[in-house]
């Protein structure tokens, strides 16, 4: 690098993940007159890239990709006995194929797609006790997922109705039993805020800040004198 030389005055880096020094090495290899020596320098440079570039080292071994990158950085002008065909120049402007977006008909989006998968798995169980335990677990999940996006509480009757709809009526449970034993309690309880008062009149006196008894100095002095 020359003194006073700025990046704007240098040649553009073709593949930025390898850096300017690697590109300079390729430019030097192109000037070596001995064809056999050029090939040896290319092989040495590929090994050096694997050591210096962690992202290349972590990827699966792909010798052709490394040679393709060498030709790209050499502007497709590298006269060596390479083991793979030279990539076409338009590979630099080739766009990746569009990934298909997964399309699925989720009837109860407020619960999530996985809930319906769990319902289908529960329908495969033949043991009544095991199916009941799965219905309870589904109810807990559904109430938890619903409350994470909605402020109002979801009634247990709605959960049982939705489970029955998702299972085509094959999964059911007694609503009174669910409510009596609170079987659909959320998996994660909300933590109470610190210094939260159970009564609006509490906290008016400093001695009642935490809902406890007022501090009595005389009482403690009497105990010390006894």
Low-confidence stretches: 190-226
Helix content: 40-55%
Derived structural class: mainly alpha
Q: Helical stretch count?
A: 9
Strand content: under 5%
Succession of helices and strands: HHHHHHHHH
What is the number of strand segments? 0
Shape: rod-shaped
Q: Return Rg in Å.
A: 35 Å
Distance between the termini: 88 Å
Please tell me the overall pLDDT: 77
The description of the largest β-sheet is:
none
Structural description of this entry:
This protein has 226 residues and is mainly alpha-helical. Among the domains are: 8-93; 113-181, no CATH class. It has helices at residues 20-31, 35-52, 54-58, 63-73, 113-123, 128-149, 156-166, 175-181, 217-225. Helix 1 runs antiparallel to helix 2, helix 5 (113-123) runs antiparallel to helix 6 (128-149) and helix 6 crosses helix 7 (156-166). The protein starts with 19 loop residues before the first helix and ends with a helix. The model is unreliable at 190-226 (pLDDT under 50).
């Amino acid at each position: 690098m020359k003194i006073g030389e700025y990046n704007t005055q240098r040649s553009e880096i073709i593949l930025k993940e390898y850096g300017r020094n690697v590109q300079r090495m390729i430019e030097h290899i192109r000037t070596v007159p001995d064809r056999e020596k050029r090939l040896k320098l290319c092989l040495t440079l590929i090994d050096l890239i694997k050591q210096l570039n962690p992202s290349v080292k972590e990827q699966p071994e792909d010798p052709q990709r490394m040679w393709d990158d060498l030709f790209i950085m050499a502007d497709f002008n590298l006269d060596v006995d390479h083991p793979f065909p030279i990539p076409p120049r338009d590979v630099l402007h080739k766009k990746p194929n569009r990934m298909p977006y997964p399309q699925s008909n989720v009837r109860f989006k407020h619960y999530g797609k996985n809930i319906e998968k769990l319902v289908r798995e529960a329908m495969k169980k033949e043991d009544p006790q095991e199916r009941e335990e799965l219905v309870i677990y589904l109810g807990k999940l559904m109430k938890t997922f619903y409350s994470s996006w909605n402020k109002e509480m979801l009634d247990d009757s709605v959960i049982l109705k939705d489970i029955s709809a998702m299972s085509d009526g094959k999964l059911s449970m007694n609503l009174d039993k669910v409510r009596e034993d609170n079987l659909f309690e959320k998996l994660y309880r909300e933590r109470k805020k610190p210094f939260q008062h159970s009564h609006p009149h509490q906290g008016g006196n400093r001695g009642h800040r935490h809902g406890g008894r007022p501090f009595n100095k005389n009482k403690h002095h009497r105990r010390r004198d006894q």
